[in-house]
Design goal:
about 350 residues, mainly alpha, about 75% helix, globular
Amino acid sequence: MGAYILRRILLIIPTLLGIMIINFVLVQFVPGGPVEQVIANMQGQGDVFEGFAGSGNDAGQESASAGNEKYLGARGLPPELIEDLERQFGLDKPPFERFLNMMWNYMRFDFGESYFRKIEVTDLVLEKMPVSISLGLWSTLIAYLISIPLGIRKAVHDGAPFDTWTSGAIIVAYAIPSFLFAIMLLVLFAGGSYWQLFPLRGLTSDNFEDLTIAGKIVDYFWHITLPVLASTIAAFATLTLLTKNSFLDEIKKHYVMTARAKGLSEKRVLYGHVFRNAMLIVIAGFPAVFIGIFFGGSVLIETIFSLDGLGRLGFEAAVGRDYPVMFGTLFLFGLIGLLVNILSDLMYVLVDPRIDFEKREG
């Protein structure tokens, strides 16, 4: 097992390098950049994208008259100012040199400083991480607590009315996008058009620091309820069907028929023999499910509920062309995702020691 883990760890290097190369190259061809962002702010446009959304002919005339200007909107500005901005952002160097310098710093976990916030990227990530962890962890736990019992019951009553109508509900839940479900929750329960039962935004109240410990706990769960429900819906549907199918596969095997022939009760057969084998894929996949919720749905959910987490940080960095935050978070997320894949394999071995990945590869 040690040799297998070592090989997987070594594979992280070329995989992560490939991810960074592809994204770095793509960014070079995307219009707009930190220099254009500063120019747009200086000219009172507020956002570089307003320059791209100009009205038809006016935009075309401006582009044509601008000639060979290197940056959009830079016409009329002193060349020394543009050169100074390029030096500040490190854009005065060739792309290949910039990429090598970036990766050398990232190998030492030096992610630099945000262009526009003047804060270390590491400090930004640590500041936003509790929000995303709260969202991902509670969503994953609730999904498992609901999906496993429901999936087992559906497997036991396969084809019965209970299985039929719950399958319909699960399919509908899976088909609803998480962001649409989040908006529906806001409209229904956050003062939209019906009931004001939950807060509209944020993870805590303004007077959170003045509350007692019990009050802080209640306030925290009061704020996190709707975002967690919105994040859970897709994972809940997938896990329920996965649990059901895993149990159905095990129930049809010969050792189950043998156990029943020995006179064991159905409950003893189900939870004493079937459960461990059927739960292998479900339990071992916990890290991957958590990371999927943590990274996958966090952007829209955090934006809709005004939660200041990692997903929103990455989105704002992409819009603002804050390259250190963009590439720093991409590197961290890629590294975490690859490490979680290894952790998932270790979970398989922990749940069922009979699994040997080295023999399977051989």
